[in-house]
Amino acid sequence: xxxxxxxxxxxxxxxxxxxxxxxxxxxxxxxxxxxxxxxxxxxxxxxxxxxxxxxxxxxxxxxxxxxxxxxxxxxxxxxxxxxxxxxxxxxxxxxxxxxxxxxxxxxxxxxxxxxxxxxxxxxxxxxxxxxxxxxxxxxxxxxxxxxxxxxxxxxxxxxxxxxxxxxxxxxxxxxxxxxxxxxxxxxxxxxxxxxxxxxxxxxxxxxxxxxxxxxxxxxxxxxxxxxxxxxxxxxxxxxxxxxxxxxxxxxxxxxxxxxxxxxxxxxxxxxxxxxxxxxxxxxxxxxxxxxxxxxxxxxxxxxxxxxxxxxxxxxxxxxxxxxxxxxxxxxxxxxxxxxxxxxxxxxxxxxxxxxxxxxxxxxxxxxxxxxxxxxxxxxxxxxxxxxxxxxxxxxxxxxxxxxxxxxxxxxxxxxxxxxxxxxxxxxxxxxxxxxxxxxxxxxxxxxxxxxxxxxxxxxxxxxxxxxxxxxxxxxxxxxxxxxxxxxxxxxxxxxxxxxxxxxxxxxxxxxxxxxxxxxxxxxxxxxxxxxxxxxxxxxxxxxxxxxxxxxxxxxxxxxxxxxxxxxxxxxxxxxxxxxxxxxxxxxxxxxxxxxxxxxxxxxxxxxxxxxxxxxxxxxxxxxxxxxxxxxxxxxxxxxxxxxxxxxxxxxxxxxxxxxxxxxxxxxxxxxxxxxxxxxxxxxxxxxxxxxxxxxxxxxxxxxxxxxxxxxxxxxxxxxxxxxxxxxxxxxxxxxxxxxxx
Length: 741
Fold this sequence. Notes:
This protein is an alpha+beta fold. Helices cover 39% and strands 24% of the residues. The chain has 25 helices and 30 strands. The strands form 6 sheets. The chain has an 8-stranded mixed β-barrel with strand order 21-22-24-25-26-27-28-29, surrounded by 4 helices. Helix 9 (274-288) runs antiparallel to helix 23. The longest helix has 23 residues, at 20-42. The protein starts with a strand and ends in a 13-residue tail after the last helix. Residues 644-662 have low confidence and may be disordered.
C-alpha cells in the first residue's frame, strides 16, 4: 500500500510474478514421485531403504511379502539372525549381511548373495539379496536393499540338476535329436552301448550311425511321418555297434512339438535287449526243436501245422499228414545201446528230409514217431505216389556205425485235409487214429484214416444231454490238488479241478466235455458253477480254520469267459456273496488265451488285477509269446506246459514244470536247461514258478535247487475231493516223509 506521511492509503503498488513454470515443475515432481511409488510397489522384488543409522525408513509391498510383515522402523542390520548360508547351512554373521556391509564400507563394490531365511510367519524362502550404499560428497546417507525371492527358481534348478544327473547315470541310452534326426545330446549309456563317444556322435544322424541295413523299404520314412504328426513311436530293431557287432535295441521315440504343431526335437530312450532276445531264441529252440535230430518237435509242429492250415486257399488242393512210427524201437535201443539208437533216429530224420519239398515239414513228435506234412498237393490223386515215395525212403535196411546192417520196420498212418479234418488238432488226431489202425493190422503197415462220423455224432448228442442234466443236478464235482512251497512244505494254494462221473457214460474227461460245452454254449454256466461252489467252499473252510489260514484257491476259466466284458463285475459279486477276499483267489489263464490280441481280455486281466485277484499264466510254452509280451501282462505266477519233454527217458511216464517238463529231470540235460531257463526268466520279471507233476524225490530236489518256489504232483498230494481236502487243511508240511516214496 502507498500512504502519505502516515495518513490514509493513497494507492498500492502491485508486483506480479509468473510462477507457471514453477507450478508445472511441482506437478511434474509430484507425478514422478507417485510414479516412483507405484513402480516400487509393483516391482516383483523387495526394496527397502535404511538410513545412515541402519533404520528402515522405506520399504515396498514386495519386501513386506518376503519377510511376512512390514519392516518400517526396524533395524535392517538385525535381520542377519534370520538367515543361513545355503551350501553349508551355517548361520550368517552380522558383518556378512549385505546391508551391514554396505553401511560400514560404502565405497566397496556390492555383490549379489544368496541366503535361506525363515520370515516372521515361519515361511522358508531362498533370497538373492544385494545392498547398494547411497553416498553424497563423500558421506553415506544410507543403503538400498534389493531382495529377490528365488525359491521356485532354485527348486526348478534342483529338479533339473537331479534330472540331468539321473539321465547321465541312467543305464538306458537317452538321446535328443533335432528335426532332421541328428544327435544333439547323448548320455554316457549311449556311448557304452554303441561304442561311439558322445562327442563323436553329436551332430551325426542316428540312422546313419547305427543302421544295420535290416529294415524294410520305407521304414524310416514312415517313422518320421508318425513323429511329425506328434505320435510316440516304439520299435525293436537290430542295430550295428561301432565295432560291427549287431545288437537289439528296444527304442521309444517321443516328439516334442512347438505351439504351432511343428516338430522341435525327438527324445529317444533305448534299452539294449540283446541278452534277453538271445535267451528267448535259446528258449524257443529248446522248446520248439528236437535236440537229437534238429527237427521241429511236437509243440513246434502243432503250431506250424495250425498256421499252414489257416493260410491255405483250399480250392482243389489237398494236404496230407503222415505219421511214421519205428516198430519195436525200444527193443532196438535196449539191444544196440542208446548211442546206436540215437544214430538210427538221426538217419531216419535225414531220410525224411530228403523226401519233402519246399513248403513241406518234417518233425519228431515222440521218442519213435515222426510226422511229415505234405503241403499244397494238387489233389488226392497225387497222394498215393507221395506216400509210396515216403515208404521207399524209409526202406528197412540201416547201416550202423560198426558197418553192420540191420532191418528197421515202420508203421504209417495218413490223414488228409480237408476231406478228413480241417483244423490242426483234428487232423493230427485222425493221423494218430490211422497209425493205431496200422499197428493193429496184421497185414498192412499203412492205413489211411477212415472215420465213422455217425458214431461220433451220436456220442456228442448223448454227452450234451447228460452234461445239461449234470449241470442242473449234482452230477459235477470239484477236486482239489495242493500246491506246496517246496522249501517249507507249507500249503500255498490248491488248484480246483472239475470232475464228471455220469451214471451211464462213466467218467468223462474234461478234455472231452469242456470243448463240447464251448460248442453248445454251456461253458459260461459251468464257469459260474465252479466259481460259486469253489469260493463258497473256500469261505467255509477259512471260517473253520480261523485267522491263521493263508492259502489261495486257484481256478481255471475258459478263454471265452476271459473275454467276457461282464467277468470282473460278476466275479466281484460272487466274492461278495461268498465272503471271499480277492487276494485269496488266483485265476489261471492259458498262455494262448493270455496272448490273444483281444482288447477285452487284456482289459479284464487288468481289471481283475486291480481288484486284487492273483493271475497265473498256465500251460506256458504252448504259445508263441515273447518275454517282452509276458512282461506287459499283470501276472504273478508262471506255470509251464507238460508237452516239453513228455518222451524223455525210456519207460518213463510223461509227467507234468507242468507235468512232463520235470519228468526228464535228473536224466536229460536238455530238460534241466529248459527248466533252468524258464525259472531264470520268470524270476527276472518278478514272477514265481509252479512246477506241476512232481513224482520223484529227484525231481523235487532238482527243482528246489534251481530256485523253483512252488510245486504240485503225486509225490506231494494227489487231487482229492472236498471231503478229503478239508481234513488235510491243518497239515504243517506236505513234503514227503522218508519212507514209502
